[in-house]
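Whiteboard transcription, Tuesday session. T.W. wrote the C-alpha cells on the left side:
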C-alpha cells in the first residue's frame, strides 16, 4: 500500500537507472553533469552493490602478457589494442577524477608469473610490446632478472613486469562515487529488486524489502546490472562468471613483494593488503560451474587456490584464511562492453568482462552520451 505522496513524487524520474555499481553510478553522475535539471533515480536490489563492483580484488590492470596473447587467438590485433586502450584510459580517467589518495591507488606495477608450461610467452613479448608501443610510447612488458626476492617456489621460472598497472581500493572508489552522486543530486534507492521492465514505456516493476509491489517510471531507462541484465533483456546473450576471493589473517612476517600479480592468462590474481594475502580467481578450472548468479563458494576452486598459495606463492609462510567472498561478473562472446540502445526509451551498458574497475567510469560516460542522444 502506497501513499499519494509516494506515488506522486518518489517513483518517477527523467532517467531511471537500474544498478548502483560502478557503471550505474558513473552513468548517473555523467548524465547529471550534462543535464543538471533532470531528475535521476538509481535503483539497486541490494543494500550494497550486488555484482562485483565492491567484491573484486582491487586490481588496476588492463591485461597480462599471456592474457593478451590469448586474446590475440580469438580477436584481431586492432580489437585487442582497442580493448587495452579502453581499459588503460579508463584507469587514468578515474585517477584524474578521484585522485590517487581518494582511490588508495598504488603505482606498484603489475606482474605475471610464468611456469614451464607458459614460459614460451616470452618469445612473443617483443611482438606484444611493438603492438602496444604506438599507444604507450615505450615497452609495457619487461622480464624481471632476479627471482630471489619474491620467494616463490622453483615452479616459477620467470616474472614479467607491467610498469603501467597498479592497485586500488574498490571500497574507497565506491565511497567517492556515492559522494559525487550525492553532490550532483542523484537519488539512490537500495533494496529495490527490479523484476521486469517495459523498455518501450520506461516502466520498471519491482519489489521492495517489505514486499510491496512498486512500478517506477522514467522518460528514459538505463540498465547497468551487468551479468544480471539477462533477466531483464534476455537477447543480450550474457553469461555470469563467478569469482572467488580468499583473504588471510594478518601475517607474522612481511610479504617480500609489492604489486598486483597474475598467473595463467589472468585467471588467478593475488596481492597483499595490510600485510594480509589476497588471492582470487580460478574459475578456469570449473567454467560451467562458475556460470552462476549464486554467491556461493566452490570448494574445488577454494582448494585449488589454497594449494597454489601453499605450494608455489608463499611456500615458506603459514596461511590462515579469515575471509572469503564471491562476486558475479558479466561475460559474452567478446570482451568489448555492450553499450547500446535496445528500445525507444531504453539502453544497456553491460558485459564488463571482469574489468569493471578499469572501464566502469568510462563506460558510464559513454552510456550517458548515448542516453543524451536518445
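and on the right, the sequence the group agreed on:
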Amino acid at each position: 500500500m502506497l501513499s499519494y505522496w509516494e506515488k506522486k513524487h518518489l517513483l518517477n524520474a527523467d532517467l531511471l537507472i537500474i544498478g548502483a555499481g560502478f557503471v550505474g553510478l558513473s552513468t548517473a553522475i555523467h548524465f547529471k553533469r550534462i543535464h543538471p535539471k533532470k531528475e535521476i533515480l538509481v535503483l539497486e536490489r541490494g543494500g550494497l552493490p550486488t555484482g562485483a563492483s565492491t567484491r573484486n580484488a582491487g586490481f588496476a590492470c588492463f591485461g597480462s602478457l599471456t592474457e593478451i596473447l590469448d586474446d590475440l587467438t580469438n580477436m584481431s590485433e586492432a580489437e585487442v589494442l582497442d580493448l587495452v586502450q579502453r581499459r588503460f584510459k579508463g584507469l587514468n580517467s578515474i585517477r584524474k577524477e578521484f585522485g590517487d589518495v581518494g582511490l588508495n591507488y598504488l603505482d606498484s606495477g603489475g606482474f605475471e608469473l610464468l611456469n614451464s608450461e607458459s614460459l614460451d610467452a616470452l618469445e612473443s613479448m617483443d611482438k606484444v610490446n611493438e603492438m602496444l608501443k604506438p599507444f604507450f610510447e615505450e615497452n609495457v612488458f619487461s622480464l624481471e632478472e632476479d627471482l630471489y626476492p619474491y620467494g616463490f617456489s622453483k615452479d616459477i621460472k620467470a616474472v614479467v613486469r607491467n610498469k603501467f598497472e597498479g592497485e586500488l581500493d574498490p571500497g574507497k572508489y565506491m565511497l567517492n562515487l556515492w559522494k559525487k552522486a550525492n553532490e550532483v543530486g542523484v537519488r539512490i534507492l537500495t533494496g529495490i529488486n527490479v523484476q521486469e521492465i517495459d523498455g518501450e514505456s520506461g516502466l520498471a516493476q519491482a519489489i521492495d524489502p517489505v514486499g510491496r509491489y512498486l512500478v517506477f517510471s522514467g522518460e528514459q531507462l538505463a540498465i547497468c546490472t551487468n551479468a544480471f541484465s539477462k533477466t531483464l533483456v534476455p537477447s543480450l546473450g550474457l553469461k555470469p562468471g563467478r569469482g572467488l576471493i580468499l583473504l588471510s589473517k594478518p601475517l607474522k612476517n612481511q610479504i617480500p613483494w609489492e604489486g598486483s600479480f597474475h598467473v595463467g592468462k589472468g585467471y588467478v590474481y593475488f596481492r597483499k593488503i595490510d600485510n594480509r594475502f589476497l588471492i582470487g580467481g580460478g574459475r578456469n578450472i570449473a567454467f560451467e560451474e562458475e556460470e552462476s548468479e549464486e554467491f556461493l563458494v566452490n570448494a574445488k576452486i577454494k582448494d585449488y587456490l589454497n594449494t597454489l598459495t601453499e605450494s608455489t606463492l608463499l611456500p615458506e609462510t603459514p596461511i590462515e584464511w579469515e575471509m572469503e567472498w564471491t562476486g558475479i561478473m558479466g561475460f559474452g562472446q567478446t570482451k568489448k562492453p555492450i553499450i547500446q540502445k535496445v528500445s525507444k526509451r531504453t539502453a544497456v551498458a553491460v558485459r564488463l568482462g571482469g574489468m569493471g574497475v578499469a572501464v566502469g567510469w568510462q563506460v558510464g560516460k559513454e552510456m550517458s552520451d548515448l542516453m543524451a542522444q536518445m
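Someone added at the bottom: Residues 109-168+239-331 form a domain with the D-Amino Acid Oxidase; Chain A, domain 2 fold (CATH 3.30.9.10).
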